[in-house]
Specification:
- The protein has helices at about 15-25, 60-65, 85-100; strands at about 5-10, 30-35, 45, 55-60, 80-85, 105-110, 115-120, 125-130.
- It starts with 6 loop residues before the first strand and ends in a 14-residue tail after the last strand.
- It is about 25% helix and about 35% strand.
- By secondary structure, the protein is of the alpha/beta class.
- The strands form 2 sheets. It has a 4-stranded mixed β-sheet.
- A hairpin with a 5-residue loop joins strand 7 (about 115-120) and strand 8 (about 125-130).
Length: about 150
Amino acid sequence: MKPHITVITLGVDDLNRSLAFYRDGLGLSTKGIVGTEYEHGAVAFFDLHNGLRLAIWPRKDLAHEAKVPLGPRSATEVSLGHNVSSKAEVDTVIAQAKNAGATITDPPHEAFWGGYTGSFQDPDGHLWEVTWNPAWESADEPGQGA
C-alpha cells in the first residue's frame, strides 16, 4: 500500500448540522451535500490541501456501505490533528471551533513536549487537536498539517 490518504470520512448523526459546523463555522470549502439521489449516498466533501478531502457521511449509511454493524460513537477511536504556524493561531482556531458549536475538551496550553495545543469535539464527538509544534518549521510542510 502506498501511504497516500485522499479522503478522511467522518460518520455523523445529522448531516445538515455537521455541514453547517464545518462549512459555516470553520469555513471549510464545499459544494454542499451531494448524492441525495441515492438511498445511502448523501455526503458532503470539503477540500483541505494537496488533494486531501474531508467527507461527512451519515453513520448509518457508512455502516451500511461498509457492511459493519452501527455501533456507539466514541471520541477515542481517532483524533484529527490540525497543525498551525503559531500559538496565536491555536487560540484563534479553538475560538472559531467554540463559536461554531464545538465542545472544547482541552483549552489551549503549553504542552509538556514544548509545543502549544488545544482540543475540541465537533457536534458528533469527533476529536480534533490544534497544535503548534516548534520542531516543525511550517504547518504547510507535507505531512504536517490537517
